[in-house]
């Protein structure tokens, strides 16, 4: 099979696949090199460390995830429907990614407290998600509650390999966002 991607792209693609399916700590540099079909020197020419690779992976994942969310929910203009559609995006992602959960939370569970650069990327992603819900709802308390339901639905659906936590959250959202 001919190799058409540049080495950096192959390394990032390998990291995306391996970090998300088997975990950050379980993925070794040698496995990344083998999967990306690059030399060790090439790997370190593009990424000085595994941490640097993880930062790039998470930065790319952030863009990919939010673009997907925006595309998935773009047809909805009513607050309640846009929020429900956001939760349905989780169902879509679970189907496409075999319930692998949130790439950011997965890596968060594996890093040490001294990995502040990775932690910052994760915190920024979650802050952007909170802002996303606030921009739709504009009530700070309610938008934070929706955000927390969203986050717990991600974790619980991964844990049980089932979408029932998302459906349960949608039911709660439906009652929370009833017109008053």
Description:
The protein has 180 residues and is mainly α. The chain folds into two domains: 1-48, Orthogonal Bundle (Arc Repressor Mutant, subunit A); 50-176, Tetracycline Repressor, domain 2. It contains nine helices and no strands. The protein has helices at residues 7-22, 29-36, 40-46, 50-73, 79-97, 103-108, 116-137, 140-160, 164-176. It is elongated. 28% of the residues are buried.
Topology (elements, then pairings):
Elements: H1 7-22, H2 29-36, H3 40-46, H4 50-73, H5 79-97, H6 103-108, H7 116-137, H8 140-160, H9 164-176
Task: Give a short synopsis of this structure.
It is built from nine helices and no strands.
Percentage of residues assigned to helices: over 70%
Write down the CATH class of the largest domain.
Mainly Alpha
Low-pLDDT residue spans: none
The main sheet comes to: none
Offer a few descriptive terms.
about 180 residues; mainly alpha; Arc Repressor Mutant, subunit A; Tetracycline Repressor, domain 2; about 0% strand; elongated
């Amino acid at each position: 099979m001919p190799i058409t991607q540049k080495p950096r792209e192959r390394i990032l693609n390998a990291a995306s696949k391996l970090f998300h399916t088997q975990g950050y700590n379980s993925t070794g540099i040698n496995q990344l090199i083998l999967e990306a079909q690059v030399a060790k020197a090439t790997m370190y020419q593009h990424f000085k460390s595994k941490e640097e690779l993880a930062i790039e992976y998470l930065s790319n994942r952030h863009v990919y995830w939010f673009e997907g969310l925006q595309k998935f929910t773009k047809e909805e203009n009513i607050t309640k429907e846009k929020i429900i559609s956001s939760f349905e995006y989780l169902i879509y992602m679970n189907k496409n990614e075999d319930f692998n959960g949130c790439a950011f939370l997965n890596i968060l569970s594996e890093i040490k407290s001294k990995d502040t650069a990775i932690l910052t990327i994760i915190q920024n992603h979650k802050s952007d998600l909170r802002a996303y819900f606030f921009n739709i709802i504009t009530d700070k308390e309610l938008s934070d509650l929706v955000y927390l339901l969203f986050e717990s639905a991600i974790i619980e659906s991964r844990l049980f390999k089932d979408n029932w936590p998302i459906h349960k959250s949608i039911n709660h959202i439906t009652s929370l966002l009833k017109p008053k």
